[in-house]
UniProtKB/TrEMBL annotation:
Composition bias, Low complexity: 30-56
Ranges where the record places region Disordered: 30-57
Name used for this protein in its record: PASTA domain-containing protein
Annotated signal sequence range: 1-28
The organism's place on the tree of life at top rank: Bacteria
Keyword Repressor: no
Listed Gene3D superfamilies: 3.30.10.20
Coiled coil: none
Keywords: Signal
Length: 133
């Protein structure tokens, strides 16, 4: 799970940095900003791994249903062993870079909320498109 969490965190950081793009200006400024972002990513991943190492297991599975997927994977779900995230049409959202850029809401989870899980218990999420407000 830690590798998955770090991968998801790195992907989220990369997507956020990519969305910041430059509308012009000096190339040196863009390169400098990219270097700063790249330097920050490992320390964030290291902090996440340290956070997960301090948790005690087993613990009760949180209720992720109705939560925004992007918020979960970098916060409350970070230390859980999420092994699959599936879209409504069966697509593998977890391993699809384009799919991770879409706003998703968790529709269901296995195991159910309240179930005692370890750090290695496989967790699967099914998601639906997030409602636009």
């Amino acid at each position: 799970m830690r590798r998955t969490a770090i991968t998801v965190l790195t992907l989220a950081a990369a997507l956020a940095c990519g969305a910041c793009g430059s509308s012009g200006g000096e190339g040196a400024a863009s390169t400098s900003a990219a270097a700063s972002s790249s330097a920050a990513a490992p320390s964030s991943a290291q902090t996440a791994a340290q956070q997960c190492d301090t948790q005690t297991w087993p613990q009760k599975m949180p209720d992720f249903k109705g939560k925004v997927l992007g918020d979960l994977v970098v916060n409350s779900a970070l230390c859980f062993n999420i092994t699959a995230i599936t879209g409504p049409d069966g697509t593998d959202v977890m391993h699809d870079a384009a799919g991770m850029t879409k706003p998703w809401t968790v529709a269901s989870q296995t195991p159910a909320a309240g179930t005692s899980v370890t750090a290695k218990t496989p967790i699967t999420l099914k998601v639906t498109a997030a409602q636009q407000k």
